[in-house]
């Protein structure tokens, strides 16, 4: 094989070597009461519009959430492509070993012919002294022809396989490199958005930060109240499946752990890292990102949702939470926050998806 293929195989070889029970939130979510608005402090009186700040922060963190989904998707693809490169590398190693053995067999056949005086088998047959020797020799010649033809065919096929493995490995390696670049670009987006948000928050006085937190709660409560006022909770009475109970138990056990973009536990989580790991713990693998969860899992009407189902938020499916019953959900909100329980309608709902089958609910 040429130096290019040898280099590819060396790369491939390097890759081989390198490579609770259901929680009930209580009645607070059935009838949320907005927190009272504290009086403005001196800094607030200076004219800062904290509602505009809240909206700006929400926009920045949502942008970071979208970029996190891009990062997670790129990471998932990279993991898959790395595994494929490793498998191809293993095939290349096995193919090389097979080719070596075939060449040894071919060399042994050539050496045997040399020891016979360099004459082809047909010549030895003609020189036979007796009819029986002639007949025996004829049989051996036919067998030899078949064996030689089979050996040459196997050598050719093995060489072709190795060439194809090398091409496939090269293609996968290019995809892997493209995936790494996509991950790096997404990471820059995330860090940029979070840095801007943190800078905006850090510029606030302590009183302003407290008021900002109140404004966030008020906005969530207002959305939850509007959702409940539609009467939707009267229609939602689905019971969790056995797997759903296990998923909810896992997710609620993570309450209080910090949000970290790209994280899948056990110490930190992002929104889809929490939901995907919860369902893995229940014995069912689901897509890693909120957007893929929305695309690939079965859609359920909101009024038909049950504990364990996933609620997808915003028009771009950039956030996901797990419904736990009684009008509440558990989620990993955003940077600077921890896994928590919130009202299921506290953000704009895009739809609901169900990871497990309908059977087994009780």
What this model shows, in words?
This protein is an alpha+beta fold and 362 residues long. The chain has helices at 3-18, 42-45, 50-115, 121-126, 131-202, 206-229, 232-235, 242-253, 271-281, 290-296, and strands at residues 298-300, 310-313, 319-325, 328-331, 340-343, 349-354. The radius of gyration is 33 Å and the shape is elongated. The chain contains 10 helices and 6 strands, in the order ααααααααααββββββ. The model is unreliable at 1-28 and 31-48 (pLDDT under 50).
List the helices and strands and how they pair.
Elements: H1 3-18, H2 42-45, H3 50-115, H4 121-126, H5 131-202, H6 206-229, H7 232-235, H8 242-253, H9 271-281, H10 290-296, E1 298-300, E2 310-313, E3 319-325, E4 328-331, E5 340-343, E6 349-354
Antiparallel strand pairs: 1-6, 2-3, 2-6, 3-4, 4-5
Helix pairs in contact: 1-3, 1-5, 3-5, 3-6, 8-9
Brief descriptors of the model:
362 residues, alpha+beta, 6-stranded antiparallel β-sheet, disordered N terminus, elongated
Side by side, the strands of the main sheet go 1-6-2-3-4-5
**How would you state the average pLDDT, rounded?**
75
Q: Main beta sheet: strand number and arrangement?
A: 6 strands, antiparallel
Helix content bin? 55-70%
Name the overall outline.
elongated
Give the H and E element order.
HHHHHHHHHHEEEEEE
Question: Strand tally, please?
Answer: 6
Cα Rg? 33 Å
- Separation of termini? 63 Å
Residue runs with pLDDT of under 50 for 5 or more positions: 1-28, 31-48
Structural class: alpha+beta
Oligomeric state: single chain
Q: How many helical stretches? A: 10
Query: In what range is the share of β-strand residues?
Result: 5-15%
